[in-house]
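Bit of a strange request maybe. I'm writing a small parser for structure token strings and I need a real example to test against, not something I typed by hand. Could someone generate the tokens for this chain?
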Amino acid sequence: MSGPTLTQQLTELITDKPVVATDLEQAALLTLDAMANALGARTTEPGAILLRWADETTIADAARRAFLLGSLTHILETDDLHRTSVVHPGCVVVPAAWAVAAREGIRGHAMLRAVLWGFEAVTRVGMAVGPTHYRLWHNTATCGPYGSAMAAAALLRLEPPAMVHALGNAGAQSFGLWQFLETGTMTKHLHAGRAAEAGVLATDLARFGFTGPPAILEGAKGWFAATCPDADPAAVTRDPNGPWQLLLTSIKPWPSCRHTHPAIDAARELRHRCPVGAIERVEVESYPAALEVCDRPLPRSDYEAKFSLQHCVAAALARDAVDFAAFAEPARAELAALRGRVTLRVAEPYAAVYPSAWGSAVTVVLRDGERVTVGRTHAKGDPEAPLTPVELIAKARMLMVHGGIREPDRLIDAILALSDDSALPELP
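Reply from user aminoacidic:
Good idea to test on real output. This should exercise your parser:
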């Protein structure tokens, strides 16, 4: 192979990209969001299992610490989402960066720079995999190791050849299939945890000289050939002078699959115009991936309800808040009749513009025949309709309280102070 490989080009692009103060401030906000998700999940059933496992196995190394934090971060379904890569970068990159920075005694600016680098790597690889990959493979899991490796490499200050080895061996550990959705198991949380762990392990080994395939992405027997039939390799390095991909990442306001959010947003507006008792039926228009992942008319658990467009739209139409309680068994029973009147279909313009934009339209047909439609090109929390820092901090506080954290504001302030180059705070 002549010329630099894609991973060589990617590392050069990232290491040459300038970082300014506002980039670090936004990285601190997304770090707060990720860590609040991890702490908030401690009181869930899968979170309790993970913590009990951690206590009994006495986790000591950074890779396993990243695994634990990554798995926790992806439980509540309130972690961030980068649209064009269809990746949740925070649940992979931030746990890896946090674990390595804590081990190495690294302060805020270097930690946040590592987060920027990690988001850039995972999302650029994610933008290159092509839409077919997502039908079987969970992009967060498969692309995640590239991001966690890049973040760890930044913190360990690896030279470019060692970074390439780290990315090669991180990519060789990629995995993550959607089969868990068939039965609503806990597997999805492991996807984030293993992706975070894989990158840290690969980078730690690269520091000692352990080599990896430099053409892991585009090689004849590499990752694109194996798992990406319609890959777009040029996306890895496209628009190198654009904004950091972290700045293009969406923050979730509601605890459900991001594919449900534009429809939730539209339905929440309709709630004030369409009394539930007057609704004959509800029609939801969206893009193919939303239906492939979230067409679930009879959710049998909280988790399945979070992946049910029918349930999410019914909850948004009927309840004051789309919160954790909206997915619990009492709410599922309460909303069964309305949920049964929700139908889904793929429609334009939403299908054509995905994944650059994740949109939906919700139409309520009233018993008197009136039709009321609200559409969304973007959902609340997207860069085009962002949460304010006040809203994001309020979300973090809610998640920490949900996880049993006392005095959450003190920890929130300490995490945000990373942009002032403060030390990492101790986690409860």
